[in-house]
Write a structure and sequence with these properties.
The structure is a single chain. By secondary structure, the chain is an alpha+beta fold. The protein is built from five helices and five strands; from the N terminus they run H-H-E-H-E-E-H-H-E-E.
Length: 147
């Protein structure tokens, strides 16, 4: 998926970028989307996964086609998200409590903006985590036919 490869190419830290494990279809996936805005979403998800994971931990990036849907999953081995914060992290200026406790920098806007972009493309975005210290997965689903 060209959008993902572009976002990876733009990561300024080569060591961080080398931690990404990409599993994307060999053939291009075509949809009625704004490429620039989707690059913004992917760049944000990759940056967050790398930021909140230990420096040596890989970040898994998967793209799958499920019928008319395209599903992007970004999975890290980082600090995780407490269950009560799984939805809150998508609110503007809101971050998971453990991110604040570990003194990770950030304004709490990236996920809110990313979700808004995805929703405006007729898709959905959510987070899954088994809790603190257990990593996180962020999932984006987009319909190729954009509703």
């Amino acid at each position: 998926m060209a959008v993902i490869r572009q976002a990876v190419d733009e990561i300024p830290d080569a060591d961080a970028a080398s931690r990404l494990r990409l599993e994307v279809p060999a053939e291009p996936i075509v949809g009625s989307w704004d490429r620039g805005r989707l690059e913004q979403v992917v760049a944000n998800l990759l940056a967050n996964a790398l930021k909140y994971s230990p420096p040596e931990a890989p970040v898994q990036v998967n793209v799958d086609e499920v019928g008319s849907l395209v599903r992007l999953c970004v999975t890290d081995a980082g600090i995780g998200i407490p269950p009560e914060d799984l939805e809150a992290v998508f609110e503007p200026f809101t971050r998971a409590r453990n991110a604040e406790a570990h003194h990770y920098p950030g304004l709490g806007l990236g996920l809110a903006v990313s979700r808004e972009i995805v929703v405006m493309h007729g898709g959905r975005m959510w987070a899954e985590s088994e809790g603190e210290g257990r990593g996180s997965t962020f999932i984006v689903e987009l319909d190729r036919r954009m509703t």
